[in-house]
């Protein structure tokens, strides 16, 4: 049996109609991801309200649980519907009067409703709660014993695992152990047949061991002597004639066998020891957290009946990244029933803010919360195909998994874009961090595969709506560049006609300007063919990032950054001075500009040469360029308006897409070529 679907109406963030939550769940591990206040905790709590939890925590409906719509009107009724599917024959028998038949499947619907009948919780009865079965709650009401069978295990956020595992009245450890079938096994203690060896003692139940200990305590000479002194030396002297009272020293256990078992279990604690069996003393929150989860999974995996559902909020709490990954692997094994001693698979539903965990969970097991909707990312729900899922399993690492928690996503093809774009955005007044934008560097692999995560297969339902901007190079050189980069020697070089060459120039797209313009426009549109919903691709106006930055107005800064990158090691080792390198670079740039004679394409091709064959790292140059631009701002040489006028249009548009902040319009550059633009 597993939770297969949940529908939530008028509960906290979720309203009704178009804003209600309807979400399918699958067996195994399902992770709820999304930014703060997207509804992850509301979903976990909705399940808790409908199914209850095993820790016997009292659930109190609060006024703020009732949804308030955009007009400020508060709902009068909350509706939470959970569907339980995959019932075994035994489970169908236990729930026979609560079953619903849907085609070939037999399910149980749990419909929890809370209706306000008073204005404030101060009245004796301000809400009416009902829990009924059947479609739309038209079946019989659930009895409390049946609801206990359907309850889930719940690990709250910021949990105090040490307290949960400590001894005490009603401790969580005692609750867990009392439900482990083996706990009640064993023989009762017989005072007339006291066990005489270890083998006989091992046959006793826990209650039997407790009775044996009580018997042994009573027979201890020290206890007997103290009891005799109390009665004969003190109590007798303090008693009146005719009083018949005697003192008895005994272990404070009594009542029925079940009560005595509970008292024993409440005295137990779960602690950590090292491999030698020695106690570790006071251990950390992270270790306690892992121990607590292991204990809860023990119960869920060994219970012969009930709903094996574990709800965890923020399982990463108090865990360092490596242990988070280890935990995720363990939960996946528990969900598949591959842990020794676990007799049945456990369904795990967790909410997380950790990219570490999100990167270790298969994409198909994630549900993205956004705009009061839950968006499963399983196959069939997104525009991804099976090959995309396989690709993303390989390359969706922790540095890229932050896209699940972003307000906007910039997907770039290289390190240079990932380094320079946050600086450019901040300088023009659109700080990516302030807007909650994540940059995902795909390293030239699968730009559109990552973007299709945010595109829904079904077009008639709600869309995810997180703005996604893909930044792509045009990868078409001006006609002068191949010769400047020593790829060819003159227009007649046969390499122009060579098949299989990896570079393209403007002349490859037609014999006249009009034909080239049409062909280049088609090339740009092909790069955008997978755009749609909230995903847009922004293509370089000319060639690559570095060339376009130089072409649009940052030529000197890009060239200086390139030569700083080429001299990065000598600069770090203090064999060269930064000011000297900058001065020499500016002098060389002035010479290049003079030689270009006003041909901007030729000048920018020369500026790009250090990146092509001059040993300048694009990523290192991007770092130096960022520092140069910040220095220019500090010295008053640049401001936001001037910088916007010097940036390529496609970069400004991409920044605007993910920050939804209007930027001043910038004129589109002229078509590229050998002539001065």
How would you characterize this protein structure?
This protein is an alpha/beta fold and 677 residues long. It is 39% helix and 13% strand. The protein has 24 helices and 16 strands. The chain has helices spanning 40-51, 89-94, 144-149, 161-164, 172-178, 198-202, 206-219, 221-238, 257-265, 285-302, 321-336, 355-360, 386-395, 415-427, 447-451, 481-484, 513-527, 545-566, 568-572, 578-596, 600-613, 618-634, 640-646, 649-659; strands spanning 2-9, 21-24, 29-33, 77-85, 99-102, 105-116, 127-132, 153-155, 309-313, 347-351, 366-370, 373-376, 408-412, 437-441, 468-472, 535-539. The strands form three sheets. Strands 1, 2, 4, 5, 6 and 7 form a six-stranded antiparallel sheet that branches. A six-stranded mixed sheet has the order 8-9-10-3-11-12, sandwiched between helices. β13 (408-412), α14 (415-427) and β14 (437-441) form a beta-alpha-beta unit. α18 crosses α20, α18 (545-566) crosses α21 (600-613) and α20 packs across α21 (600-613). The protein is elongated, with a radius of gyration of 35 Å.
| Average pLDDT figure | 84
Category from helices, strands and their pairing:
alpha/beta
Shape by Cα distribution: elongated
Q: What is the terminal-to-terminal distance?
A: 69 Å
Residue fraction in strands: 5-15%
The tally of beta strands, per DSSP, is 16
Which residue ranges are poorly predicted, with pLDDT under 50 across at least 5 consecutive positions? 661-677
Helix content, binned percent:
25-40%
**Largest sheet composition:** 6 strands, antiparallel
**Number of discrete helical segments:** 24
Q: Any idea what the radius of gyration is?
A: 35 Å
């Amino acid at each position: 049996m597993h939770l297969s679907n949940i529908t939530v109406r008028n509960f906290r963030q979720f309203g009704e109609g178009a804003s209600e939550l309807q979400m399918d769940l699958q067996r195994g591990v399902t992770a709820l991801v999304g930014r703060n206040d997207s509804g992850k905790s509301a979903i976990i709590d909705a399940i808790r309200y409908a199914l209850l939890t095993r820790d016997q925590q009292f659930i109190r409906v609060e006024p703020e649980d009732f949804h308030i719509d955009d007009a400020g009107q508060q709902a009068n009724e909350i509706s939470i519907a959970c569907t339980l599917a995959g019932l075994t024959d035994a489970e169908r028998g236990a729930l026979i009067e609560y079953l619903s038949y849907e085609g070939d499947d037999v399910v149980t619907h749990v419909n929890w409703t809370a209706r306000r009948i008073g204005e404030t919780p101060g009245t004796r009865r301000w809400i009416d709660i009902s829990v009924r079965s059947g479609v739309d709650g038209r079946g019989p009401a659930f009895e409390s014993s049946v609801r206990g069978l359907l309850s889930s295990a719940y690990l709250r956020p910021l949990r105090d695992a040490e307290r949960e595992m400590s001894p005490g009245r009603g401790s969580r450890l005692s609750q867990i152990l009392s439900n482990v079938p083996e706990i009640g096994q064993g023989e009762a203690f017989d005072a007339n047949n006291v066990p005489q060896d270890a083998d006989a003692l091992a046959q006793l139940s826990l209650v039997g061991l407790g009775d044996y200990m009580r018997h042994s305590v009573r027979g201890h000479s020290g206890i007997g002597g103290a009891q005799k002194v109390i009665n004969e030396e003190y109590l007798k002297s303090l008693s009146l004639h005719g009083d018949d009272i005697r003192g008895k020293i005994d272990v404070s256990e009594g009542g029925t066998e079940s009560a005595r078992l509970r008292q024993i279990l409440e005295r137990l604690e779960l602690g950590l020891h090292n491999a030698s069996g020695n106690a570790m003393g006071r251990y950390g929150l992270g270790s306690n957290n892992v121990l607590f989860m292991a204990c809860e999974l023990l119960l869920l995996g060994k219970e012969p009946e009930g709903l094996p559902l574990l709800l965890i909020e923020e399982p990463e709490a108090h865990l360092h990244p490596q242990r988070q990954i280890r935990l995720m692997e363990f939960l996946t094994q528990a969900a598949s029933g591959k842990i020794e001693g676990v007799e049945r698979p456990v369904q795990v539903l967790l909410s997380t803010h950790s990219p570490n965990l999100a990167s270790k969970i298969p994409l198909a097991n994630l549900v993205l919360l956004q705009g009061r909707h839950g968006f499963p990312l399983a196959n069939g729900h997104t525009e991804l195909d099976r090959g995309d899922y396989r690709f993303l399993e390989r390359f969706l690492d922790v540095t890229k998994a932050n896209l699940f928690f972003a307000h906007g996503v910039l997907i770039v093809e290289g390190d240079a874009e990932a380094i320079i774009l946050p600086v450019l955005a901040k300088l023009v007044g659109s700080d990516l961090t302030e807007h909650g934008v994540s940059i995902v560097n795909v390293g030239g692999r699968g730009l559109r595969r990552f973007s299709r995560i945010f595109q829904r297969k079904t077009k008639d339902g709600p869309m995810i709506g997180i703005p996604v901007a893909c930044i792509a190079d045009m990868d078409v050189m001006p006609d002068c560049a191949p010769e400047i980069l020593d790829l060819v020697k003159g227009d007649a070089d046969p390499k122009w006609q060579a098949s299989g060459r990896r570079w393209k120039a403007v002349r490859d797209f037609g014999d006249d300007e009009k034909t080239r313009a049409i062909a280049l426009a088609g090339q740009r549109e092909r790069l955008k063919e997978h755009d749609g919903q909230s995903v847009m691709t922004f293509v370089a106006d000319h060639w690559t990032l570095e060339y376009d930055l130089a072409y649009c107005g940052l030529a000197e800064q890009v060239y200086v950054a390139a030569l700083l990158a080429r001299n990065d090691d000598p600069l770090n080792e203090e064999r060269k001075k930064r000011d000297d390198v900058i001065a020499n670079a500016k002098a060389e740039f002035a010479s290049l500009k003079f030689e270009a004679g006003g041909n901007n394409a030729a000048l920018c091709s020369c500026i790009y040469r250090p990146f092509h064959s001059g040993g300048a790292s694009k990523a290192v140059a991007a770092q130096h360029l960022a520092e140069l631009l910040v220095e220019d701002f500090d010295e008053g040489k640049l401001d936001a308006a001037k910088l916007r006028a010097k940036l390529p249009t496609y970069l400004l548009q991409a920044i605007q897409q993910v920050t939804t902040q209007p930027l001043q319009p910038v004129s589109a550059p002229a078509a590229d070529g050998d002539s001065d633009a």
